[in-house]
Design goal:
Blueprint lengths: L1 H28 L1 H4 L4 H18 L3 H21 L2 E3 L5 E3 L1 H18 L3
Antiparallel strand pairs: 1-2
Helix pairs in contact: 1-3, 1-4, 3-4, 4-5
């Protein structure tokens, strides 16, 4: 039992470090691509919550897929985004929607598999 808890903590720590690296890349290094300052942090905190819950239930695949989903969602958001104009004439971009949906879908797919 003790080694199982230690193993789960090890995986959680590794997933947290990987998610942190993905966050730093998307928030600071690639800021010029998306110009979002708050949304990467919101997704990062959401990912931390997912990792903690997965660690409690020993969901190794979910812990691994969280940073993968974060960066894959970012890439998909940057590839398939589109600029649109709202009714007031302001410019909007849907990259954050694509990023979030991709992130959530990848996490849900990992939860659906056998933990």
């Amino acid at each position: 039992m003790k080694s199982e808890v230690k193993n789960s903590a090890f995986w959680a720590l590794g997933a947290t470090v990987a998610l942190g690296i993905c966050f730093l890349l998307s928030r600071y290094i690639f800021l010029y691509m998306h110009k979002m300052t708050q949304w990467p942090f919101i997704l990062f905190v959401s990912g931390l919550v997912v990792i903690v819950v997965a660690a409690i239930f020993n969901g190794r695949k979910t812990m691994i897929s969280t940073p993968i989903g974060y960066i894959v969602g970012f890439v998909l958001g940057m590839l398939f985004n589109a600029d649109i104009y709202d009714t007031g004439g302001g410019l909007l971009n849907n990259a954050w929607i694509i990023w979030t949906i991709s992130f959530v879908v990848i996490i849900i797919a990992s939860v659906g598999t056998v933990m």
